[in-house]
Amino acid sequence: MEISVPSLLRIKPKALYKIGKYLRKESMNKIALFYGEGIKDMFGEPVDISLDSSEIQVGIEKTIVNNDVQEVYSMTFDMPKDVQAIVAIGGGKVIDFCKYLAFVSRLPVISVPTSISNDGFSSPMSSLYVNGSRKSLKAKMPDGVIVDTAIIQKCPEAFIYSGIGDLMSNITAVFDWKLAARQENKPINDFAALISLNAVENFINYGNKDIRDIELLRLVSGSLVMNGTAMEIGQSSRPSSGSEHLISHAYDKVAENSTLHGLQVGVATYAISWLQEYKHDVIKKVFLDTGFIDFVAQKPLSKKDFFAAIDLAPSVKDNFYSILSEAGKIAKLKEFVQTDELMKKMVV
User: Fold this and answer.
1) Residue 217 vs residues 9, 208, 210: alpha-carbon distances, Å
2) Is the pTM of this model over 0.90?
């Protein structure tokens, strides 16, 4: 089994200003450069200066507004043949686009997220539209990840809380993975599970839970990178995605107004951990200490839609056993959502 992990990893303040230097060290002298919407206006100047100072050529530059899979295939024909790497700067849309473009083009891809709302910037999967429906597709694991924590520190707090929610779900995801393995008499990848749990435990054990603390943001960013590595090693999304993700995906389908993926995942993680009877108090404390619950309570999820999502969740993925697959668990979870005081703040 061939495993790919990022060989270039920089998580520090002002990292974006050194992007040219980092690419030069990797012998990536000519690149295809892709921005998310509005990102070039904010960060294009320092990127250009850094690339120019390191004599990095830009063979093609585009802003990605549509992440339909057909757009990715079309882009392969526009790529100069001598491009040595693809660089994606921005949010999930451009990074997912570029990871799949790299997969199709068989080129290295460097992921430069300007927010950390989930682990997609470091995962070997891309969320793209296929025939009008969003699908999760096997993509290129990033060969490099550059996170400028000074930029992350200034991004809207919703994105930081979303990243925290996505990270905390490792706990419930690994529980579901082990549960499914026992039910189906199949082994799990113990190393992938260990990486996933260690990633979230590093964050949990850090004392300062101020979401603007630069060291906390470094930990969250690094932990989300480890999520991607765990998925690559496990050759599955299981180390970081369980029943809590099924609920979030289902909520996207049924809700008139869904919100950030990691916020939905975090709410579901809080509820699912209670259902699993596993580390619920730990998750509760982190969500209280960081302000996650109070933040979600400002714009709570719809209880009607959340209940519909719980019902739909077990059918979101084929052959995906989780705690919700067990008899009586859905009814028990709904009762918790209706009676728990913190859930009543987050789901109204």
Assistant:
1) 15, 11, 9
2) yes
